[in-house]
Structure formats: structure tokens, C-alpha cells
Design brief:
Helix content is about 40%, strand content about 15%. With about 325 residues, the protein is of the alpha/beta class.
């Protein structure tokens, strides 16, 4: 029996290879996103049931593939989200972007756009929300663009060292080696735009500094972008301490997920308190992401939604 084709899209050979991936590995993911079976013949992809997003998504993916090459699931999902978010899907030329090392990073959701505008305009930016929304990645890429352009002299990365069952004192190595596992997500973001050897040279020169949050007491940090990641694990006093380290020509970025507090008592977290107290102050922005802003992948978005709708409610009850 012949297939009933509802819509077809013909790619260039290069775009077809980049969009579908080796052995058409992206095909099943595209079917899940679009809610339809797809058929591939040469460089032509056909939808076998009605899907209003099919042709518009194929057009977006072809354009992205011609710029970026082979597409991954997160990149496909980002384009799908832009397609379904009219506020974020405006002309690229109208959206803010971060330029660093020859790369341009654009927002992938309306809330990411607000976050990037806040980074441009405000001295203190707090970003709250679940995993996969780009809080850490955009913070680090922005900071690197500021340092590499000469607008700031240093990138300071801080993170509360709060982990279950293990302390810094029992980890091998010097302070840098002890901190490395905790700061790995920040390094992953840096390595998206910089070679690890370049990062090492910047660390040796003091242009990139990593520090446990507790070690920042008493300092005044000038001409720097200060990033506090995993800020949900900073206590109230630590949060105040970090925010009052801001010196001349410095910017502070605070990011965290209030649903993933690892402190013994959730009420000790200073993230929500800071967001509430500082909201409305000129020069300070508070950006709140939701599971709908998750751009890491479709499955991560669904996991975050499931926990936000069920799992955390039980967790909060256990803390009472």
C-alpha cells in the first residue's frame, strides 16, 4: 500500500546530511517533536500525517544546518521552541546576541532574550529556574565576551561547596583540584568557546579565577564579572556577602535552581530571599525561568516538568 504523504520538504544534499545526521539518527527525534511519522527518500523528507509545524521547522533546520553543520537533538529542540514561541522567534537581527571568539550566541527562548538584555544593561542579574534553561551557559559566555573584549579585566567563578557525603578536606589534591568537580559545569560552558589550553593560560594569568564562595569574605572585586553558580546552596549570609563584594566596574551574576537545594534546611537558602528583596531596585534584574524554557532537550524539559508537578511537592512536605 502506498504511503499517504501530507507534506514534503526537499533539502540540499549538505543540509539533509546535517539535519538528519549519520544513518538518519535524528529522524525518530523529529517524529517525536512533530507528532508524525516521517519518510526519507534521498534528500526529501515527507510527513505522513498532518503536522502544521513540519514545513516551517524543516526550513529553520536547513538554515541552521547550513551555518552550523551537523545538528544535535538540543539544537533541533531549540529551533522547535523558537517556532512555537512567537515572542522569541522574531528577526535574528532584532534579538540580542553574545559575540566571543568568532562565535555568536543567540537566545533560544523569550526568557533567554530577557536574560541577555539584563546582562547588557544591569550590574546585578539573578537568574532562577530549572536545569537546562541556559542560565550557567549564557552567564559564562557573556562573562568571557566581556573579558576577552577588554571591557572587564577578570572572570571570577564562585560556587557554594555543598555536596552530600563528601567535603573538600577529604578530596585529593590542592585547592584547584579539590574544586574542579564542583566547577565542571562552568568549565564545560567555557570550553564551548575556548580551547582548554587557552582557559589554562587565562587562569595562570589571573584573568579567570575560581574560588569557593566561603573564600570571598572580606574581598572587594573590581573590574570583573563575578558569577555565583548553584546559588540555591548559598546561605542567606553568604548571598549577602557575595553581593556586597561588587567593586568598581564589576558585575555580579547569580544563578540557581530553587528546586535543587542541598542544604540541610531548605529555609536557609538565600536565593529566593535575595530575589524578593532586590526585585525592583534600579540596576538589578531578576529573571525567572520555568520548565517551558528548558532548551537542553525535549526529554529534559519533560523530566523537569514531571518533578515540578509532583516530586518537589512531596519533598517540601518532608522538610516541614
Amino acid at each position: 500500500m502506498a504511503e499517504t504523504v501530507m507534506d514534503s520538504y526537499v533539502f540540499t544534499p549538505e543540509a539533509a546530511a546535517a539535519v538528519l545526521g549519520p544513518n538518519d539518527r535524528n529522524l525518530s527525534y523529529l517524529e517525536a517533536l512533530l507528532g508524525t511519522d516521517l519518510s526519507v527518500r534521498g534528500t526529501s523528507v515527507s510527513s505522513l500525517s498532518p503536522s502544521p509545524a513540519f514545513v516551517p521547522l524543516m526550513k529553520r533546520l536547513e538554515k541552521t544546518a547550513m551555518k552550523n553543520g551537523l545538528l544535535t537533538e538540543p539544537e533541533i529542540f531549540m529551533e522547535y521552541q523558537l517556532l512555537s514561541d512567537p515572542e522569541a522567534a522574531g528577526s535574528v537581527s532584532e534579538r540580542p546576541f553574545i559575540a566571543v571568539q568568532g562565535r555568536s550566541v543567540y537566545p533560544k527562548s523569550a526568557q533567554q532574550e530577557r536574560f541577555m538584555r539584563a546582562l547588557r544593561n544591569d550590574q546585578v542579574v539573578l537568574a532562577l529556574g530549572p536545569a537546562g534553561t541556559g542560565k550557567t551557559f549564557l552567564s559564562v559566555v557573556w562573562a568571557l565576551s566581556e573579558v576577552l573584549s577588554g571591557r572587564k579585566g577578570k572572570l571570577l567563578l564562585a560556587r557554594p561547596v555543598v555536596e552530600a557525603g563528601e567535603s573538600l578536606g577529604f578530596l585529593p589534591g590542592d585547592l584547584q583540584q579539590k574544586l574542579s568537580p564542583y566547577l565542571r559545569p562552568l568549565y564545560d560552558a567555557m570550553e564551548y568557546v575556548l580551547h582548554p589550553q587557552q582557559i589554562k593560560r587565562m587562569e595562570d594569568a589571573g584573568t579567570i579565577e575560581v574560588a569557593p564562595l566561603a573564600y570571598m569574605r572580606g574581598r572587594s572585586v573590581n573590574n570583573a564579572v563575578m558569577i555565583l553558580d548553584e546559588a540555591q546552596n548559598a546561605s542567606r549570609s553568604q548571598m549577602k556577602m557575595f553581593l556586597t563584594r561588587i567593586g568598581e566596574n564589576s558585575q555580579a551574576i547569580v544563578s540557581g535552581d530553587p528546586s535543587q537545594i542541598d542544604l540541610a534546611r531548605r529555609s536557609e537558602s538565600g536565593l529566593e530571599e535575595a530575589a524578593s528583596l532586590l526585585s525592583g531596585i534600579e540596576g538589578i534584574s531578576v529573571i525567572r525561568f520555568t520548565h517551558g524554557d528548558t532548551i537542553r532537550s525535549r526529554i529534559v524539559r519533560d523530566i523537569v516538568r514531571a518533578y515540578s508537578e509532583g516530586g518537589n511537592e512531596k519533598e517540601h512536605q518532608n522538610d516541614l
